[in-house]
Design brief:
Helix content: 25-40%
Low-confidence stretches: 1-28, 307-313
Shape: globular
CATH topology of the largest domain: Rossmann fold
Mean pLDDT: 81
Radius of gyration: 20 Å
Structural class: alpha+beta
Strand order of the largest sheet: 12-11-10-13-14-15
CATH superfamily of the largest domain: von Willebrand factor, type A domain
Order of helices and strands: EEEEEEEEEEHEEHHEHEHEHEEEE
Oligomer: single chain
CATH architecture of the largest domain: 3-Layer(aba) Sandwich
Number of domains: 2
Number of helices: 6
Number of strands: 19
Strand content: 25-35%
Length: about 325
């Protein structure tokens, strides 16, 4: 997501025994902000890196990092997207999805915020962003009983835009934000293709995490069914391209594990900023650590013609 202004706090200089007040300057360049999660080969968070430890390739071209921030243990902001389409009636999908949502709420702190959305062929906002976790739990019970067809990818695109629009009103995108989708992954009515939604969502520096609730016999890790594998592959691409992750919840304990991992990741982010390309259109990104034993996950690209936001250092 492009950012048009970069605030700098200039260190005060002492002259003739007097201290000048810090001055704030804003640059005239467009910047791209990208959040990244870094793990070692054992899957543990790496939380002691500096700006010099990262490299950024913009369409294969190295870009100097102009802004850097290490996010550690701060508040998170979640947009929970709940599937209430007809296919969720099968088995225990709805029960498992609601339980996964409660695990997410249980992992939050009083300083965190969440909102609940529900979708079938249309998107409905059940709550605004709030720290009132009792109202969030109540919103799950107000979700309609599963009925009708599914516009999964359209709903992901709309919810991502809601999160982005909230950031624009604040003047910048809130960090440690995410869209979390609770679904069985079956889409029957979306106008947008998975590839289109992936591009839309990945231009916004808000990752999309997918918790796919399904019966164990449909788990793509345990079957050679082409339909199940195809659904999993589309969800995997959507989440990874935005810097998120796909979790398969085919047993009750899986939802709790996914909830803890998602919230932990959002609390351990690095935020980097670099100058945007002057060439418009989609630009693929590759963010890496100089230590090649570290695994970096970040969004896969940005739109070099999008709206700009502030980056605070």
């Amino acid at each position: 997501m492009l950012l048009s202004l970069l605030p700098f706090l200039v260190a005060a200089e002492q002259s003739a025994g007097q201290t000048q007040a810090p001055a704030k300057f804003r640059s005239a360049v467009d910047l791209v902000s990208v959040s990244a999660v870094v793990r070692d080969l054992k899957g543990r968070f790496v939380s002691d890196l500096a700006q010099r430890d990262f490299t950024v390739l913009d369409a294969g071209e190295p870009r100097p990092i102009l802004g850097f921030r290490a996010e550690s243990d701060g508040p998170v902001k979640l947009a929970l997207l709940f599937d209430v389409s007809g296919s969720m009636r099968l088995g225990s999908k709805v029960v498992d999805a609601r339980q996964a949502a409660r695990h997410l709420f249980g992992a939050l702190r009083p300083s965190d915020e969440a909102a609940v959305f529900a979708f079938d062929t249309k998107l409905e906002r059940l709550t605004d962003f709030t720290s009132d976790f009792a109202s969030l739990e109540a919103a799950l019970d107000r979700a309609d009983q599963p009925y009708g067809q599914t516009s999964l990818y359209d709903a992901v695109a709309q919810t991502s835009r809601v999160v982005a629009d909230g950031g624009r009103r604040e003047g910048r995108l809130p960090q440690r934000s995410a869209v979390i989708v609770l679904t069985d992954g079956i889409d029957t009515r979306s106008r947008l293709t998975p590839e289109q939604v992936t591009t839309i969502a990945s231009t916004i520096d808000v990752p999309v995490y997918v918790v796919a609730v399904m019966a164990s016999i449909d788990d793509p890790r345990e079957t050679d069914d082409e339909r199940a594998i195809g659904i999993s592959s589309a969800l995997q691409n959507l989440s990874q391209w935005t810097g998120g992750k796909l979790f398969i919840a085919s047993a009750p304990a899986h939802g709790g594990t996914a909830a803890r991992q998602i919230v932990d990741e959002l609390r351990h982010q690095y935020v980097l900023a670099f100058e945007a390309s002057t060439r418009g259109g989609w630009r693929p990104l590759q963010v890496s650590a100089r230590n090649r034993t570290y695994v970096v996950r970040a969004r896969a690209g940005y739109d070099a013609g999008g709206e700009a936001m502030d980056f605070e250092r």
